[in-house]
Fold:
Amino acid sequence: MQLRYAFRLDPGPGQRVALARAFGCARVVYNDAVAARERARREGAAFPSAGALSKTLITEAKQSPGRQWLSEVSAVILQQALRDVERAYTNFFASLKARRGARVGAPRFRSKRDARQAIRFTANARWKITEAGRLLLPKIGEVKVRWSRSLPSVPSSVTVIRDAAGRFFASFVVESDPDADLARMPDADGLPSVGIDLGLTHFAVLSDGTKIDSPRFLRRAEKKLKKAQRELSRKQKRSKNREKARLKVARAHAHVADARREFHHQLSTRLICENQAVAVEDLAEKALARTRLGKSVHDAGWAQFLAMLEYKAQRYARVFAKAGRFEPTSQVCSVCGVKDGPKPLHVRTWACTHCGMAHDRDHNAAKNVKQAAGLAVTACRARLRPGLVPAQREEAGSHGIHTGARAAQRHSTR
Structure:
């Protein structure tokens, strides 16, 4: 199974300049390729092939007066920029033909003011990890790495990322060892199965009655974020003080995102370690985020948490299953199975009109999630979809479009 291991980098002043130059060259080649494809589309001509773009935008461009500086960076990152354009167009055209799944927008031009900049080095770039533990990158030098753990195998590629807060990261693609992964986790035999109901009052309620409080990282940091944003709005545009204030805001948001990601990692690892099967509800997160509870939904980060549960279950040979999105988990009695009708969100406890059993709303929903996903839990693991390459930090992605106002309204009554 392929994984991504991300580590913080500490480049020196000269290396920061070299990395900025590499980010800029890769961005220019990417934009030139998008412009060439768009020009061919307007003229009704065939799209230029990857080989033709490589010859025109890299090989010949290096000889021209306006693009001579492309020779100052590794040619591999320029080739990878062209591959990124090809992949972006492939995903765009595939999404137009697909009846289901997320819609992907057409590739756009990249800007030097984008919050995230990235370059990728493959094996033929001759990068390596030195004996001293530094990352040697061509035409950049040996960059100091903050190693927090060892790599399970030799990486096949590394992506250098600069985020909005000005931090640098190295994301390695490695192949995990299945035997070593299974040895790290207890044997699944004898472990229970659990259903999980995600919410806002409590982040998660388990079918065994355990309630996990919601940390609400964004809500707790709102006062600090408002102050930093207010200071930013008062600074003169394109001034050095405004850039300092912008970095302060970006670092505050990065602190919130890092804390939320760490909470999700710890909780998902604990659930996978203590259970042989995990059942969750298939939520329409994007539709729920467009309701009046949108800020709280974004603060909870359900999609990121469920993605972690899914790939960790696949990695450690656990069963991951989803209950149907239209299952009335908060309307059905988990004891007798009678549907008691929708209930507004302020109703946290209720009694079944048929058997008289008193229920906690979230605990009852967690039990129903486990029961609704029972067939998938007991089925063989071959029924599960093969997961995407999981990443500790996102490197690329497209956001789907869910026209789910009815789904949001339906969830608010559950």
About this structure: The radius of gyration is 25 Å. The chain has 13 helices and 14 strands. Residues 61 and 67 are 5 Å apart (CA to CA).
